[in-house]
Design a protein that fits this description.
Elements: E1 5-8, E2 15-16, H1 18-31, H2 39-42, H3 50-60, H4 67-83, E3 90-91, H5 95-104, E4 108-112, H6 117-126, E5 135-137, H7 149-158, E6 166-170, H8 173-182, E7 186-189, E8 205-207, H9 215-226
Parallel strand pairs: 1-4, 1-6, 4-5, 6-7, 7-8
Antiparallel strand pairs: 2-3
């Protein structure tokens, strides 16, 4: 029987990348001759990606952002971010222990993220986590990305897993909508990057710390979704 699999989102779920993404945003705004954003108030936009972060920063400062300039600034953002990986990014508390817990129980682990694949691989490798994941799929790994459910199901396929024995863990409406569309249960963390509380999107379960992502919780959610025992 195929072993069960847990598929994690990356930014805002496994890794707190906000400090570095916000550093790159402020570097980019300086190139556009705009003042830096308030990092505390802007964290909720981090999960939307660099393009949206730049757009929101311009909107907040009532500045016009034309398409060519948007493209130029996004290139600056991406270059700065890539050159500074891993920077201050770190796994969230309890992540390493959760990984060990599920590996010991013979779960496969994978990552499905809307971050570019190269940046995802670079970050995960820099933090010494690559060996734990049987597949790492970014926004450009396939011709589609979350919330398209095929991004998740193809990641599971790439990892040698079975969608009927899978669980998604994420921090946003995009993650939750993706898992639901794929018919896969989803655990939402409530400490990630979203401007609305994850309860509004009705995930299968919500956790506030990775200590709460237990073997029992994962097994119950997979069993409930598919009517199969997880061994």
């Amino acid at each position: 029987m195929t072993r069960p699999i847990i598929v994690f989102d990356l930014d805002g779920t496994l890794i707190d990348t906000a400090p570095d993404l916000l550093d790159s945003l402020n570097h980019t705004l300086a190139a556009g001759q705009l003042p830096a954003v308030d990092e505390t108030g802007f964290r909720r936009f981090v999960g939307h990606g660099g393009r949206v972060m730049i757009e929101r920063a311009y909107t907040a400062q009532r500045k016009t952002l034309v398409a060519d300039e948007h493209d130029r600034l996004f290139g600056i953002f991406l270059d700065h971010y890539t050159l500074n990986i891993p920077g201050r990014s770190q796994p969230y508390p309890g992540v390493l222990e959760a990984i060990a817990r599920f590996e010991q129980a013979d779960y496969a682990l994978a990552v499905c993220t809307n971050k570019y694949e190269a940046n995802s691989l670079q970050l995960i490798e820099a933090l010494g986590l690559t060996k734990h994941f049987t597949a790492i799929a970014g926004q450009d790994t396939f011709p589609f990305r979350k919330p398209d459910p095929r991004h998740l199901t193809r990641t599971i396929e790439l990892a040698g897993g079975d969608p009927t024995r899978a669980l998604m863990v994420g921090d946003s409406q995009t993650d939750i909508d993706t898992a639901k569309a794929a018919g896969i249960p989803v655990v939402a963390v409530d400490f990630g990057y979203t401007d609305r509380h994850v309860r509004e999107f009705e995930p299968s379960a919500i956790i506030s710390h990775f200590d709460e992502l237990t073997l029992d919780l994962a097994a119950r959610l997979i069993e409930s979704a598919n009517g199969k025992k997880v061994s």
